[in-house]
Amino acid sequence: MNLHALKVFHAVARSGHVTQAAEELRISQPAVTQHLRNLEKEIGLKLVRPEGRGIALTYAGRELYALSGKLFAAEREIENRMSDIAAGKRGELTLAVTNLPGTVLLPRWIAYFKTRHEDVAINVITVNTREAFALLREHRADLAVIAGGWEQPRMKWEHLFDEELWFIVPAGHPLANREASLKEMMEETFVIREEGSSTRERFLSMCRTYNVRQPKIGMQFNGLHETIRAVGAGYGANLISAMAAREYIERGEVARVYVRDVELKRPIAICTAEDHPLTPVAESFIRLIRKKLREEAV
Length: 298
Hints:
Layout: H1 3-15, H2 18-25, H3 29-43, E1 48-51, E2 54-57, H4 59-86, E3 90-97, H5 99-114, E4 119-126, H6 129-137, E5 143-147, E6 155-170, E7 179-180, H7 182-185, E8 189-193, H8 198-209, E9 216-221, H9 224-232, E10 238-241, H10 242-250, E11 254-259, E12 265-273, H11 280-297
Parallel strand pairs: 3-4, 3-5, 7-11, 8-9
Antiparallel strand pairs: 1-2, 5-12, 6-10, 6-11, 6-12
Helix pairs in contact: 1-2, 1-3, 1-4, 2-3
C-alpha cells in the first residue's frame, strides 16, 4: 500500500474536505484527488463519496481511517522515541566505577542526572581500576569513572580533579591526630586493598619514590569502606581516600596521621574506549558531570 497516498486519505478523512487537506499537506487539490483515486484503485474499494461541499467516508473508508490513525500514531511515537534517544533523553547507560566514585560521587551525580533524564536506565558496576579498564575494552561498559589509575593505550582519559590520600589509624592509636615522619609511619602494619586497586598501586609507588620499606600487610580487603572499618575496629593503619575517610574521622571512629613532607594525591577521571563511540546518553552524562563540577567549584 502506498503510504503517502494513505497519509493523504487520512488528512482528507480527518478534515472532511479536500481543500483543507491540500492546505495542510501543501499540495494542490487535484493532487489530493488523484492520490485518493489511486488508493481506491489499489485496494479495490470506494473510500469517500461527495457530501455537500465536503466528503463523507464509506464503511471501508471509516475502517481505513481508524486503522491508519493507529499506524500514524505509532509513526509519531517512533519519531519521538528515536529523537529522544538521539538527544540522550532516553536509553541505557552502563558505568564501570571504582569504589570511591561509586560510593561518594556517583550517587549524587546519578540522582542529578535522573531528575532530568528519567527515561534513562543506569547500571553501575563497582570494580577496581584494572577491572574497569577490562570492562571498557570488552565494550561491556559505556564509560568508567576512576579514582587513581593510570592512562592506558587506546583509552581516552579526561581528568576531572585531584583528591588527597590520608594515612589513618585507630582512634586510640599513639599516632592519632599527630604529626609523624614517613619512616615512622611505615613501621605500622597496614590494612590494604586488593591487587588491581589504584590506591594500593599508589601506596606501593610512593614507597619506591620516597625510598622507604614496603608496607607490612596485615590484612587485605576487596573494598574501600571495608578497609576503613577494619582500621576503626582497632587493627593496623591505612592509606585511603580523604573523601571516604572524612566521615569516619568526624565520627571519631578513626584518626588521621599527618605525615611530614608527604602530600599524596590521585586523579579522578572519566575513561572511555577509543574504539567504542559514545552513545548520546553517555555524552549527556559526561556533560552533566562537567556542569556539576563547575557548579560545585563556584
